[in-house]
Amino acid sequence: MLSITTDTLRFGSFAVIFVVLALAEHFFPRRPLSVSKSQRWFVNLSIVALDNLLVRMLIPLAPIALAERARIEGWGLFNLFGLTGWQELVASILFLDLVIYLQHRLFHRVPLLWRLHRVHHTDLDLDVTTGTRFHPLEILLSLGVKMGAVLALGASPLAVLLFEVLLNATSMFSHADLRIPLKMDRLLRMIVVTPDMHRVHHSVYPVETDSNFGFNVPWWDRLLGTYRAQPRDGHDKMLIGLREFRDQAQLGIWQLLTLPFAPYRSRRND
């Protein structure tokens, strides 16, 4: 019953948020497209389907099941100190978000991990589907990191479920090709990562790519010195993606799946 309820909630929230953002992008686009949207969507959504199939086959509901086990056994920091209720929910979500932020920085710093993560950065345009475009091996590694964090914290099953739903929602929102009025964006990015804030992270300039790592809240970037307010070329003229991957015809499903194993060229620091 827990599996059915959790799957329904996760998929239902994903579907609703995806449709709402896709419609919003259609009516209020931020930038003109540089490549075929149908091509990109086919590739991105195919990778999403493969990721979900792989995770469901290997370790379905692992973080939530682990959280329940930790609760029963009394494992983890919050269980040790008896932190419960809304305090535990808020603390768990914030700490898990910090872990994902640090993991994201690590995937940019370690060459072997960057091989996997650059699949996400090869997208030549940004929209709601980019927020789900990750190599299956990166998904599995990220899942392992989250499981370790859940066990160490002793996060409750409800907190883990809410975090997963929130992470999916904010990842799609922050990658959306959505025009938000400047004044509203300034206010929103005080509490959540906005599309304009995260778009900087997808610049071809490595110094911009290595900024704005947050998914849910912008506070870690601001506190830890990785926040960059705007791209140097402006949002309308900035180039999205990686310099070495500029041809959509060479970014098909098979090419992206095998990309981590292709010859690697170090990034420049310009």
Short description:
The chain is mainly alpha-helical and 270 residues long.
How many separate domains make up the residues?
1
Helix content: 55-70%
Structural class: mainly alpha
Overall mean confidence score, pLDDT:
92
What is the overall silhouette?
A: globular
**Major sheet:** none
- Estimated radius of gyration: 18 Å
Determine the N-to-C terminus distance: 52 Å
> H/E series, N to C?
HHHHHHHHHHHHHH
Given as residue ranges, the uncertain stretches (5+ residues, pLDDT < 50) are none
Q: Number of helical runs?
A: 14
Describe this structure in words.
- The protein is mainly alpha-helical.
- It has one domain.
- It contains 14 helices and no strands.
Keywords, separated by commas or semicolons:
single chain; 270 residues; mainly alpha
SSE inventory with pairings:
Layout: H1 2-27, H2 37-58, H3 62-73, H4 77-80, H5 85-109, H6 111-121, H7 136-153, H8 157-175, H9 182-188, H10 195-199, H11 206-209, H12 219-223, H13 234-237, H14 253-258
Helix pairs in contact: 1-8, 3-7, 3-8, 5-6, 5-7, 5-8
